[in-house]
Description:
Rossmann fold, eight-stranded mixed sheet, 2-enoyl-CoA Hydratase, Chain A, domain 1, N-(1-d-carboxylethyl)-l-norvaline Dehydrogenase, domain 2, globular
Amino acid sequence: MQIQSPCVSIEQSNQLAIIKLANAPVNALSKAMRVGILDALEQANNEPSVEAVLITSELSLFSAGADISEFSGPNLEPMLPQVLNKIESNSKPVIAVVNGNAFGGGLELVLACHYRVSFKGNKVGLPEVHLGILPGAGGTQRLPRLIDAKSALDMIVTGAPTPVVKLEGVFDEIVDKASQLNEAGVALAKRAISSGPKPVSAVALEANENTLAVFEAYSEQVSAKSKGFFAPLKCVEAVRAAYELPFEEGLRKEAELFMECMKTPQARAQQHFFFAERAASHVAGLSKDLGTRDIKKVGIIGAGTMGGGIAMNFANAGIPVTMLELKQEALDKGLALIRRNYENSAKKGKLTQEQVEQRMALLQGATDYSALGDVDLVIEAVFEKMSVKKEVFSALDKACKPGAILATNTSTLDIDEIAKATSRPEDVIGLHFFSPANVMKLLEIVRADKTSDEVIKTSMKLAKTIRKVGVLVGVCFGFVGNRMIEVYGREANRLMLEGATPEQIDRVIMGLGMPMGPFTMGDMAGLDIGYFVRQSRKSFIEHDPSYCIVADELVEAGRVGLKAGKGVYLYEQGSRKPIPDPAVMEIAQRKAKELGITQREISDQEILERCIYPLINEGANILQEGIAQRASDIDVIYVYGYGFPVFKGGPMQYADETGLAHVLARLEHYQTTLGEYGQHWFSPSPMLKNLVAEGKSFSSLN
């Protein structure tokens, strides 16, 4: 038996036809794969000696699902639902031998088979909700026919991978090891020959009071938890249809809801972000033949909150870490904090006590630079002051072995200047972790002027090792993330001077989908951080006497945020809940009067435009200067580093969806209406103006 498909093969073994999927790297169910499956199935049916069909994979995973790059393509026949319906209606039994992960369309393929076998360590899932859609090839109709309504909802609405051992209703047999699957699959196929096809569609469902109550409760829960997202409630609606409609009608309802989701800005945004995250790992101009350096041991300078968080990333990945503090007391305090963090994870069931001890054993302390002589990478995480950083790098240059990568965690400073403190600027790079460093997924990898390609490639690879999303950026003040957030914070502070309250501004920004507004974020981080940055950049802001002056006065009065119990907001002891303080608006009123700024009522729409559109404009300037490789990299930085809602896709995708011409028009409006302030701060980026003139979007730059 033989078929003309590069990614599907078929062979006969006695009375069994074995179809093998081989579409590297993830067995995406592309058109070629779908055609190959149908051809193979037809051959098996046409061979009289074949009595059952097995479908398995030649790769280590079964299938990661649909090829979403085909979503908008032409001539997609046969569509996946057609293929799966053909499998389910097959006259000879079809058995899925699930030898690895089956996600999305991959699991839907498994569900369309008559019998299923897998192994204990395997996981499967329906993650379509993360793309702003729902399973569209029968997943919402077949899965509820095999497991209870709540379990089906949990899988489809969260999109989370589920261990097969929790899905005994889905699998006819679950063996101990993957190596036992072939034998188990053949045995199951022989039983299936006797029993005949067992289509999932034949299972009858009934919407009784209990299941209807489950759907009502689930809908309320999803409405509360998934604000801004469109697909989760549609997932609930689709699963409910499995109970309320005959199978064929349920499939039609699923298809209708799938298309409803596909046409939303949320789906466009989430699918944009899916590709953006993958694109971020590719660095233009790096040779595929270029090697990387082995990172077997790491040094961290500074055992404070940031240094400790960074160290945990490497310990979690099994990489030994030496933490350096010049004072033993600070070192002991830092190691104790790490242990507390691990112990808290153990209390929540996220780690075993054995894992806590294993990770702590990978961490050792030192008070002398000589202890860093054998590290392959050292990351400096000390006070954000150039003179301090240069002193550290001068010491590292002397202490570290040739070939060691010297990295700084600076969030704003000039890495080219830091590199000059060493005799090996080609080994210097920025690794900007976001706080809390052991939690946040983003890692800004900052290429300095003389950083070698080998160091860049090693750093990008290392990001994956420690389970971060690495994004390469260039050197400028604040790089990408903090350079843009400075603009956002500036406007929020100016709006307060003009009459908007901190709570109004925070409410509007949270309404966009951000986890917190600019003033709450400032209080959480510490208002003193921004204050010290402004002190170091006086020449940049001296033309604007209004620049964050309320924040400056708060810091100078000791109101530095949550850690002091008061910042822009007040905080009760032990609470993180911000309490509005009228005294802050009194300061704003006084400062506005001194500066001749007339306070007024400001609309929510103006707040949104003035905080977000300049941020987008700064992103355009960053692209113009080549600081970011592509617009989608900025989106990845903002979603993972600053909590920009993924259902908006990031600020640049949000701008595309809003319309660049509209963004430009509003920037020009504020440039004109806000006087001298507007003339300076609302000048549109040449990049933005060019894109509008050419009728292009930021996505055209990706």
